[in-house]
Amino acid sequence: MKAFTLPDLGEGLAESEIVQWHINIGDTVTTDQVVVTVETAKATVDVPAPYSGKIIHRYGNEGDTINIGQCLLEIDELRTSSAVSTIEEREPESNKNASATVVGQISQLDKHVDIDHFSYDEVHAIHANSITNTEHPLIATPSARLLAQKLGIKIEDIDGSGANHLIIDNDIYQAYQQQTPGTELLKGSRRNMAKNMAQSHHDVAAVTITEEAHLYHWHKNDDITVSLVQAINNACHIEPALNAWFDADTMTRCLHKTVNIGIAVDSTHGLYVPVLHHAEQYHNEGIRRWIDRTAASIRGRKISRHQLQKATITLSNYGAIAGIYATPVVTPPQVAIVGAGKIMDKVIMEGERISSVKVLPLSITFDHRACTGGEAARFIKALVHSLEHPTLDKIE
User: Which of 243, 298, 326, 390 could in theory staple to 236 by disulfide, Cβ–Cβ 3.0 to 4.6 A?
Assistant: First the structure.
């Protein structure tokens, strides 16, 4: 029997959320058959079986967060009796304890509790919890023990979900949720959003400029999101400093000729930012089709990793829900994000004449390390001009 652990899914991502199991205990699987779908960094990934065999055990339920190296499945590999005998004869003793390797990897999870927060007596109490009960020995990863102590969880009452009833961090989180009604462990896109926002707050020198676009040519059925995409594309070509990436470690910036616009999409699962690659190649109808198709993928949690990568600038159209002005958060390595508030009627003076016009509030937050105030002001000026003087449709 072999233990199949969550592999490294790329980009240094340490954890994933189980979206859907495609197999049950007792099923027989073949090599490369998809056994589970997980979500990581807001993208869904199908994980295949590494070999054929019968599913003996699976670890984690849909919605659980798992880490690289954590055991997903135990599979009784299909092979002939002679092959089994030969392998066992040749297999080194160190390779026979597959669970030892799994435990070693699980203990290096990315959720850590600082042991300096505890006194000697508290740490001693954690080790005292290792006393075995009558059913199973109490086996837990070091991080799970410290997490239980910090959250006030009685670890000896937990039946671990790992191999041989190993207690892992996720078991502690689940026990905490049951103990404290209303407490929600952030998972998937919400967890990723929390990390990205914290990183941005720490790393970016954010400055926000606001402006208004007077929509003299506005019609009731006009698509404001499509208009914003076209206006951002035009502004990026007029002032490319905002369509850029910045690397603080090397103090370099990259100005992009291609405009890849990340469009923030709200969903019940959290915030997603799919990317419209080569926005300059789309006409209005093509943009709307892309938005509708992408929104459907997000609702079905079928968004791919490629669709969430390589944004050069971002749009947050929060005004579709509510809000006038905002200070949107820049996501490195990007240097700018455009925010659009709700369209309002405004009374203005035109010479000596008073008139009413539809007004679109705009905000642009930029990383002042990579952009000057003049560059940001020229960008928002171009953005306003494009919205107030819409050009002919583009060819997709």
Answer: 243
